[in-house]
Amino acid sequence: MKSFPPVPCVVFSLARERSGRLLRDARRTQLLPPVVNSWGTLPAYGELLTRRPPPLAVLDVPDEDCAYELPHRVALLRRLAPVTVLAPAGVSPAALLEAGAENVLDRSMPVEELAARLKADQRWIAREAEHKRYGAPGIPPHLLPPQATQRVLVSLILADPHPWCCHDLTRLLGSAEQPLTRAALRARMPRLGPHLARLGLELHRTGGWGRFSYLVVPSASAERGHAA
Q: Are strands 211-218 and 201-208 parallel, antiparallel or unpaired?
């Protein structure tokens, strides 16, 4: 039977200052990376979108106080990569598994057991990576935006063929405590237009009344070129 080396982890925390002790203990096992990312960290999303095979997104929830909208957050990360949640004892796993989590682990278990279970998840993800695809299709580096934030946003918007709801994007791009404002999102997304145009794509915004969605489609000029 073919052996698959474990995929790497990218760790996110909903309260980074309260995750420290557990994650320091877990790093003694040489399983977790040294960096713990706050929710909304764009370079960390970029890792999920560009590394192959896709890393395992480990979402640490230090306590119940920061567990609000947790199934929604799991569903958002799941659009980018497989997700394992480290949850406090009071959080029910059922809703998180239904939202798409690969696994939900009790963060109060002995660190050696936690490390072993995470490693099993990493092996499973490595095996499944041959059959699933996450993230945007390969884009030639010279066609990517030079600015790091825009590179991640282009990859993010291409990571899923389904439309991105504005509420999902503001939650994903904001902090754990505060979503990005819709005004900031509306200002940010049109800047992707010239970069998508170089790929023969354009960004469509649909909807209204406080809820709108973004979808990437072939540009009209690209379609005319194919028709010709």
A: antiparallel
What is the number of other CB atoms lying within 10 angstroms of the CB of residue 96? 24
| Digit-coded pLDDT (tens) for 73-115 | 999 999 999 999 999 988 999 999 999 999 999 999 998 898 8
Contact call for residues 51 and 123 (beta carbons, < 8 A): no
Please state the three-class secondary structure of the chain as a single string: CCCCCCCCEEEEECCHHHHHHHHHHHHCCCCCCCCEEECCCHHHHHHHHHCCCCCEEEEECCCHHHCCCHHHHHHHHHCCCCEEEEECCCCCHHHHHHCCCCEEEECCCCHHHHHHHHHHHHHHHHHHCCCCCCCCCCCCHHHCCCCHHHHHHHHHHHCCCCCEEHHHHHHHHCCCCCCCCHHHHHHHHHHHHHHHHCCCEEEEEEEECCEEEEEEEECHHHHHHHHC
